[in-house]
Amino acid sequence: xxxxxxxxxxxxxxxxxxxxxxxxxxxxxxxxxxxxxxxxxxxxxxxxxxxxxxxxxxxxxxxxxxxxxxxxxxxxxxxxxxxxxxxxxxxxxxxxxxxxxxxxxxxxxxxxxxxxxxxxxxxxxxxxxxxxxxxxxxxxxxxxxxxxxxxxxxxxxxxxxxxxxxxxxxxxxxxxxxxxxxxxx
Length: 185
What we know:
Elements: H1 3-27, H2 33-62, H3 69-90, H4 103-126, H5 132-156, H6 161-184
């Protein structure tokens, strides 16, 4: 898998964390750089760890499903993308406000926004992709976008939140289609 595709996957996966970071930026009353960095490090770390877990699980299954691995990767990426689009449509503007700087809240948000990365890690194993480069790119992109998201939320509010989730979902579906087309060609 080339670096461009990995980067697009990273951006697609980071959209959940970016949207949550925007919400965090909205809820933090007096934003400080160390608060934004805390959120970025949590989200980036979990987005980097989860593909490793998925990749390790996928390695154990790869031998059993090598003939249909491209379809599984397409299915997982499309399912994740559709889920992101669906969830963006059902987000309520009046959702309960929580403290995004609380460590337990950050842990829950980090896990919730990185479950998709776990499934992508499984896809990487099926596609025989080395995990090192994707993990680094996913972690760095997610951290950077999360940091940016906190400041965007602080400045611009809820205007972008749903649109970002939809864009991330469409990116993942597009990559899934690309994998199938490349395999069939």
